[in-house]
Write a structure and sequence with these properties.
10 helices, globular, six-stranded parallel sheet, three-stranded antiparallel sheet, alpha/beta, 12 strands, binds (2S)-2-hydroxybutanedioic acid
Length: 330
């Protein structure tokens, strides 16, 4: 069809619209962790009537069950037919098509995401064990920090192929980058096409060279100093929220970013989306998880999109890979 031809010729980022196009509904979506991010994912998923069943799981007594009940109470307004269930045991992931893992500790002001590596690796291993035995065909989306390292941990502990273990980060960081660019240029975020690659940490690599506003290079609208400030804003965005909150980290944008990945998987969005995946030679990098643009489908990763980068951007991407390797002792 014409649409397929056009799409193949131009595998570009798709400007977000408020309503994703009609798409496949999931059977079961399971959320491990029903705190701020998990609760918001459940809310967005229920509003988009994305799954027949949404299972919320949290070790905090009553929290997941209460959120599930609260969400079911919205169906008389929204008319959404999916049902939410909530509980405290990991076996509730049973039969899930997609599992999003947000469980674990959030950083406090002054901490880096990498400071959470040991405490959250234990949480990821527990979650992985349950997923491996109860939902062996699921696609897993890791949100727990430090994102790239925890995605590696999830891959190791489930033994799943790289296609089925994705990290949510690039979507979030790119949204922050676009938001900063749109504000600086005084345009709608829908007019901005920009992505970040690399780690979801200090070695994040916002890609200015390929970014556009209304289809034109950033330099048409912004000075070098303004562009630099937007890059910095994308890199420090999560930390800015942590500093303001004093306790806990961002919950809304990370939830939207997770939903965006699921929407790519179920065909509600087309084009590529920035996502953390295990690289196998793409961008000249092997054996480490890093944020890159990729096409997703029902079974998770379909294909990594290899963009042409400037030398500086390529160096930044490789530096991110080395930093992650170092933190994981690879
Ligand atoms: C974020 O970017 O909002 C999350 O990774 C949470 C954090 O610690 O910044």
């Amino acid at each position: 069809s014409l649409r397929r031809v056009l799409y193949r010729r131009s595998p570009k980022w798709q400007a977000p619209s408020r309503t994703p196009r009609k798409a496949r509904r999931l059977g079961k979506l399971a959320l491990i962790g029903a705190g701020g991010v998990g609760g918001n994912i459940a809310h967005l998923a229920a509003m988009q009537d994305m799954a027949e069943e949404i299972a919320l799981i949290d070790i905090a007594p009553g929290v997941a069950a209460a959120t599930a009940l609260d969400l079911n109470h919205t169906s008389g307004i929204t008319g959404a037919g999916g049902r939410c269930i909530g509980g405290e045991t990991l076996d509730m992931v049973g039969g899930a098509e997609v599992v999003v893992v947000t469980a674990g500790r959030a950083r406090s002001p002054g901490m880096t995401r990498a400071d959470l590596i040991d405490v959250n690796a234990r949480v990821i291993r527990q979650a992985a064990e349950a997923i491996r035995s109860e939902a062996p065909n699921a696609v897993v989306i890791v949100v727990t920090n430090p994102l790239d390292e925890m995605t590696v941990e999830m891959l190791r502990a489930t033994g799943f192929p790289r296609e089925r273990v994705l990290g949510m980060a690039g979507t979030l960081d790119s949204s922050r980058f676009r938001n900063a660019l749109a504000q600086a240029a005084g345009v709608s975020p829908a007019d901005v096409d920009a992505i970040t690659l690399g780690s979801h940490g200090d070695e994040m690599a916002p890609i200015s060279s390929r970014a556009t506003i209304k289809g034109r290079p950033l330099s048409v609208f912004l000075s070098d100093a303004q562009i630099e400030a937007c890059v910095k804003d994308a890199i420090t965005g999560g930390g800015q929220v942590v500093a303001l909150k004093k306790s806990g980290s961002a919950t809304i944008a990370p939830a939207h970013a997770s939903i965006e990945l699921i929407n790519h998987m179920r065909g509600a969005r087309t084009g590529h989306v920035p996502v953390s995946v295990m690289l196998q030679g793409e961008y000249g990098i092997d054996g480490v998880v890093l944020g890159v643009p990729a096409h997703l489908g029902q079974g998770g990763l379909v294909k990594v999109e290899e963009l042409r980068l400037t030398e500086a951007e390529n160096t930044a991407l490789h530096a991110a890979a080395e930093a992650i390797r170092g933190r994981l002792g690879l």
